[in-house]
TrEMBL record:
Cellular component aspect of the GO annotation: cytoplasm; nucleus
Pfam families in the record: DUF2408
Lineage of source species: Eukaryota, Fungi, Dikarya, Ascomycota, Pezizomycotina
Top-level lineage group: Eukaryota
Name the record gives this protein: Uncharacterized protein
InterPro entries: UPF0662
Amino acid sequence: MDSPAVLVPLDPREQPILDRLLRTRDALLLLKQDKSSYIKSRDVLPLYEEVIGQVETLNAVRKSQERDRRMPHTRLDYVLDDCFQLISLLFLTVGRNNEAPATLRKGLEPLSPELVKFHETLVSILRSTSAANTRSKFSSSEVSELQERLKEIQNNMKDGNFVGSDGQILGGQEAVKSLYERCWRWTEIVLERYTDPTSYSFKAKAKIPTEKAWSLRETDLFHFQRKLDRIDEARVNGNFLDATNQPADLHAQRTLLYLIRRSYAYIYALLIASEPVSEALLPIYNQLQTLRRCLLEVKDSGGVSNSRELYPYSMKLNSIDNMRIDGKFYIGNDIPEGQGSVNSLLAECYELAYDLRAAVVDEDKEDRGEE
């Protein structure tokens, strides 16, 4: 397991907890790597309960020793984080999206309502500048236009401050002013690198192997997320070091940080795109999604000329419906999670097919009436 080099737990009472969590993490990793069978809820829940039990024990130990929350993380903290990450991904894999135990919270400095629009614009400018910087070719006018937008924001300042309609200085503007300065400096650096013929090209790319969407497990993302974690943790005092162990220049720092955050965003996007359906039911769910999309396209294109054209869709729907036993989809002797989502999608497909068939019957009646 790729983990950062950290010290052993400071308190000897934490060592047994670490040993048990290591065994639990190994069991979670084996479950993640096993592609011979579908992951089931009953395989994940006992491991989750083990982790929760160790967390309660750890809380009791650290509460008794009054451990400073600001102290550096020990190996136990990293292993515990690995366990929660794996359990969350396994919960997604079995379709229990709303029960994933690991959640994150992030507080934001409150901004005056009048400053929110400026803050959002500055964030957009910063991202656009970083995106242009990571492309092999971009137009300098693209960044110059971003600078013009920055000047427009500056014109809304009075004596270097953002003020409201009543002339009072708006609250939370320090964050906005700091972001404005970052954006302006970053656009200058990108333009300087673009116009300097002697500058070197520094570009790093985090590559994730492509897999077929239907074969990707949420747990497969754990490996890539941990790789990004190790790269991010390689920073010293927040800076990446160059070959001489000195902080790299600002252009390189910003470029690497942008690519790391963009890679994290890709992983997050893949996670939130996860359907609330067990991977055992995903083949059926994906077939129904394709069938629904086809029926909607037929409906949007004007329907069918006769009911015989709906025969392939009806036959596919009936073949999927015949897989149910007492209204449930079984995989072996198991009833996987996500039955409601699959049944709802099946019912929607039936309704679409019925509407298309009914439209053909109504047209036939009208034609006979005219005759």
